């Protein structure tokens, strides 16, 4: 069976750090971890976003050198190729590294040296989105953005992530204004745990081109109408929503309602090393839970092409690949 060609728009590089690689990097960097692999695996049970973020940030302590960032990026691309990913817009959290003393250049150079060859090495075109941590001061985000611009980091855009509730998009207006003035695209996590009001703020104040998660938008029908009318994409992450208890089970996920309402929904993996699956697993989970047809799966894949920041000449061949897949079913 041929794999559906996919565009992945909501994936955090740091969220692809697999337990085995944590131990490999720890050994290489002479770090003694106070637990073994089995014990680490037992920590992957989350009650909410914060309980996940605590482990996500803690595990990064082993990622130190350019080589570490390059290896992490390469490991993701290798797995993404298997998943049928043909283009990725990858999130990177610079402050998760600068805050522990890793120079910005170490992290950007390690990631970008691999991404620049992703097409020839893995058959996956790629671009990078720097995401700012909303639970840290906006002034810090602005300083990091200024440094990224000064070093001419190869970015397509900026985003906003980490602990959502209590950290509204409104706090980051200046950061996003500077990003936009420098030609960067804007996206933001909103409506994952936070209220629809945060989605409105992301749209109206940060002027985002797409909303990451956005699942709680369904609680505000005026917002849904606005998202549909303006064809604002939502990057939905089904397995993440289950593991972070945004929904109880995959069968309770509102994906069918989102599609029925006419929302431009895309399927993504968020933090696959933590949530039990890569993007192919997320597609399989919703296909099985909702008995989705090849037409519906192709629509989800096409939505991601249209939601991407790819130029028109790159979209057409991807749409043709998706159509070829659909026709072969
Ligand atoms: N939500 C917010 N912040 C994050 C996530 C997420 O799902 N993954 C990594 N950082
Ligand atoms: Zn995310």
User: How does the helix and strand content classify structurally?
Assistant: alpha/beta
Number of helices: 17
Question: What's the overall average pLDDT, rounded?
Answer: 98
Say how many strands there are.
8
Oligomer, anyone?
A: single chain
Structure description:
The protein has 329 residues and is of the alpha/beta class. It has one domain: Alpha-Beta Barrel (TIM Barrel), CATH 3.20.20. The chain is built from 17 helices and eight strands. Strands 1-2-3-4-5-6-7-8 form an eight-stranded parallel sheet. α8 (138-150) packs parallel to α9 (173-181) and α16 packs antiparallel against α17. The longest helix is centred in the N-terminal third of the chain and has 17 residues, at 66-82. It is globular and about 50 Å long. The chain starts with 5 loop residues before the first strand and ends with a helix. The structure holds hypoxanthine and zinc ion (ZN).
Please outline the helices and strands.
Layout: E1 6-8, H1 19-28, H2 37-41, H3 49-59, H4 66-82, E2 85-92, H5 95-98, H6 104-115, H7 118-122, E3 125-133, H8 138-150, E4 157-161, H9 173-181, E5 185-190, H10 196-204, E6 210-213, H11 221-229, E7 234-236, H12 238-243, H13 255-260, E8 265-267, H14 272-275, H15 279-290, H16 294-307, H17 312-327
Parallel strand pairs: 1-2, 2-3, 3-4, 4-5, 5-6, 6-7, 7-8
Helix pairs in contact: 4-6, 8-9, 16-17
Bound molecules: hypoxanthine and zinc ion (ZN).
